[in-house]
Every structure is written in structure tokens, then in C-alpha cells.
Amino acid sequence: MHPFLYTLAADEPTARRIAATDPAAAFIAGGTTLIDLMKLNVEHPAQLVDITRLPLAKVEELPDGGIRVGAMVRNSDLANHMLIQARYPVLSQALLAGASPQLRNMATTGGNILQRTRCWYFRDTATPCNKRDPGSGCSALHGQNRIHAVLGASDHCIATHASDMCVALAALGAIVRIHGPSGDRALPFSIFHLVPGAHPERETALQHGELIVGIDIPRLPFATRSVYLKVRDRRSYAFALASAAVALDIRDGIIRDARVALGGVATKPWRSQAAESALVGKTAGSAAYHAAAMAALEGAVPRARNAFKIELAKRTLMRALARAGALA
Ligand SMILES: Cc1cc2nc3c(=O)[nH]c(=O)nc-3n(C[C@H](O)[C@H](O)[C@H](O)COP(=O)(O)OP(=O)(O)OC[C@H]3O[C@@H](n4cnc5c(N)ncnc54)[C@H](O)[C@@H]3O)c2cc1C
Ligand code: SF4
Predict the structure, then answer these.
(1) Average pLDDT for residues 270-299, to the nearest whole number?
(2) Nearest ligand 1 atom, CA 26
(3) Quick one: average pLDDT of 182-187?
(4) Residue 89 is inside which H or E element, if any?
(5) d(CA 302, CA 148)
(6) How far is the CA of 8 from the centre of ligand 2 (A)?
(7) pLDDT band at 79 (very low <50, low <70, confident <90, very high)
(8) pLDDT the model gives residue 235
(9) How many other CB atoms are found less than 10 A from the CB of residue 308?
């Protein structure tokens, strides 16, 4: 681990000023991603700006019926918040499917959005990895790629995005709120995370020095009928091999609106508008759910060891839709 400076920021302007003036500074929130990667020598910021004292830990109702979540709201608090459980059960379920209770008590909303991939080569500095060391090559392409992506990948990187929470936020159409040296901005979740293309080292639209202050979750009344389903090697404390976040608006047996996002199989939280289109206007039931699964995985590219993920993701999505469809 490299030596680094540490500053406990008393307020947001201080945190942002330090981050903006030091190109090697990084914010630290719960530390559950960053400290691990520093110990592994994958990340080596020269300065840590601790943002845990910033007043960003509120969950508030917005006048239009949406919910504003501060970047420092801990994953446990968000999962167990009454408003989230009542209005967006898919988000609560996704959070509770992630990590362990101890980690969720530390992990924050902002940090979860920016967690790094669990590709084992990325975390092993003895192996080439374009994401960690641009231009060095991708060890997973022809290596152990059982856990890797079948959607959104490139010949430069096939790593999955690891977050459960982000899959639910993609389905809900969340907005990421950002304060930075060039002003404030709000980015839809769909464009916040980037697919790897030729530059897997660039994972999000966030610029250096920009602070995520929170997310807004738009009003979505039919999200009361929503489900997160995660399939993994162990029943707890494991990352998704495939997951699905779904919400269905069903009236008189017909699907009037739908939200679908996949996790564990793509390079970013993967909202599937193709699957949503396949559902809308159809009778709720297995034929529609099957059509949605086929649409969601159309164009998926398997590698030597992860072809099983295509069928697994289809079945995960169909099961999540069936569960949502069966809710009152
Ligand atoms: C053993 C283990 C198992 C796990 N299992 C799962 C799992 O099953 N599912 C899952 O989804 N996740 C899992 N996780 C990941 C966990 O959810 C993340 O580590 C956590 O959410 C990161 O949040 P944090 O606050 O600790 O981030 P930190 O480690 O503090 O920060 C992460 C990154 O975000 C940046 N950052 C943090 N906050 C901000 C901000 N407000 N603005 C700008 N930049 C910021 C930091 O600079 C850093 O680059 C697991 C982690 C571990 C260690
Ligand atoms: S899949 Fe991406 S993160 Fe993994 S080794 Fe290849 S470039 Fe690195």
C-alpha cells in the first residue's frame, strides 16, 4: 500500500476544493471498495478526502412524489427505509441481496454506484488488464471468464458491473445528482455508466473532482409491483451470476407499462427497453415473459466459459416477471 494524505472534510466546499486541486485525490465514503483496492495496489490515490461528515445522509420526498437519496445514505438504511420498502420494493430487495449486513452498514449510495468490477484479473496486478493498466491487454478474453459479461462487452474488456443496487436504480430510471468544479449537473442513470468500448478504464461519465451528492428516484406508482431476483453460486455473500429488476403495471390482465434491468451479465447496469417493449400491451403471463427474456438477451455474446449465462439470465428474468405478475 502506498503512503497517502488523509483529510476529513468538514463541509462540501472543502471536500470539492481539495479533490479539484489534486489530480491524485479520491473521495472516500464507506471505504469498502476503495480500501480493498488500495491494499491490492490496484488503486493508489495520493490523498483521501473523507466525505462521511458531509450532510448527505437524508432520504426525502420530492414534491412530485419522487424520492431524493443522499450520497451518504448507508445501504442498510436505504434498504430498510419505509418509503423505499413501500414504493420501490425492488430497490430494497436489491440492496438486501448485496454483500453482508456488516458491509451494508458501511457502504454508501454514492460509493455503491462507483464500485469497481470483481473481475479477478483486475484485482491481480500480476496479470494484464486494460481497465487497470490501459493497453496491457485483457486476460479474461481467453482466460477464466465464467463470471464475465455477455452484454455490452468489447474486445478490450468483458468485465461485469458488480452492483445489485444499480440494477434496481436502472430499472427505476434514477437520476444521479453531481456537484463539481464546472457546476452542478444531473445525469440519467442510463448514461451515467459507460460500456467499455476501447477505453475500459473510463467507467462513468463522472469527471475528476466531481462529487455525487445523491440520486433522485422518479415517481413510479407501479413500482409497488416490483421484484429483484439474484442468482449466484452461494445463497448469500456472493455477486450475481445473473439478476433481474422488474416492475409491472398490470390492469385487467394486460401489461400497460414495464421496467426491466439485468445484472451480473453486462458491463453496466443493463436496462432493457427491448424487453419492456416486448411486454407492453401483452397479456400478463408466461408467453409475454418468455418474449421479454428473448428480447433482453438478443445479441448476447458468449465467451468460452460463460455461455450458460445467456440461458440463466433468460430464466432469471422470466422468474422475476412471473413473481411480479403474481403480486396483488
Ligand atoms: C466482500 C464484499 C462483498 C460484496 N458483495 C456485494 C454484492 O453482493 N453486491 C453488491 O452490489 N455489492 C457488493 N459489494 C460491494 C459494496 O456494495 C461496495 O463496496 C460499496 O457499495 C461501496 O460503497 P462505499 O461507500 O464503501 O464506497 P468507497 O469504497 O468509499 O468508494 C468507492 C468509490 O467511489 C468513490 N466515491 C464514494 N463516494 C463518492 C461520492 N459521493 N462522490 C464521488 N465519488 C465517490 C470513491 O472515491 C471510490 O472510488 C461487496 C463488497 C465486498 C468488500
Ligand atoms: S475483463 Fe476488463 S477488468 Fe477483466 S481483465 Fe479484461 S480488461 Fe481487465
Answers:
(1) 98
(2) 47
(3) 97
(4) helix 89-96
(5) 9
(6) 33
(7) very high
(8) 86
(9) 13
Residue 236 has pLDDT above 90, yes or no: no
Q: Which atom of ligand 1 is nearest to the CA of 240?
A: 8
Q: How far apart are CA 32 and CA 166, in angstroms?
A: 16
C-alpha cell at 275: 424487453
User: Which architecture, in CATH terms, is 221-326?
Assistant: 2-Layer Sandwich (3.30)
Please state whether beta strands 270-271 and 211-217 pair in parallel, antiparallel, or not at all (unpaired): unpaired
Ligand nearest to the CA of 118: 2
In this structure, which ligand is nearest to the CA of 19? 1
Second CATH level (architecture) for the domain 5-50: 2-Layer Sandwich (3.30)
CA–chain centroid gap for 282, Å, is 29
Domain with CATH 3.30.390.50 in the chain: 221-326
Domain with CATH 3.30.43 in the chain: 5-50
Helical H segments across 233-307, by residue range = 273-279, 286-297
- Protein residue whose Cα sits closest to atom 2 of ligand 2: 157
Task: Return the residue whose CA atom lies nearest to atom 8 of ligand 2.
Answer: 129
Quick: pLDDT tens for 292-321: 999 999 999 999 999 999 999 999 999 999
**Cα→Cα distances 39→44, 94, 125, Å:** 9, 28, 11
Q: Which residues of 265-282 are buried (b: 16+ CB within 10 A; e: fewer)?
A: bbbbbbbbeebbebbeeb
Distance 130 CA to ligand 2 centre (A): 6
Using DSSP, state whether 77 is helix, strand or coil.
Answer: helix
pTM for the full model?
0.98
- Give per-residue pLDDT as tens, 14-70: 999 999 999 999 999 999 999 999 999 999 999 999 999 999 999 999 999 999 999
> Please, are residues 249 and 111 in contact by the beta-carbon 8 Å criterion?
no
Q: How far is the CA of 309 from the centre of ligand 2 (A)?
A: 18
Closest-CA residue, ligand 1 atom 4, reads 99
In whole angstroms, what is the distance from residue 138 CA to residue 121 CA? 8
AA identity, residue 23: P
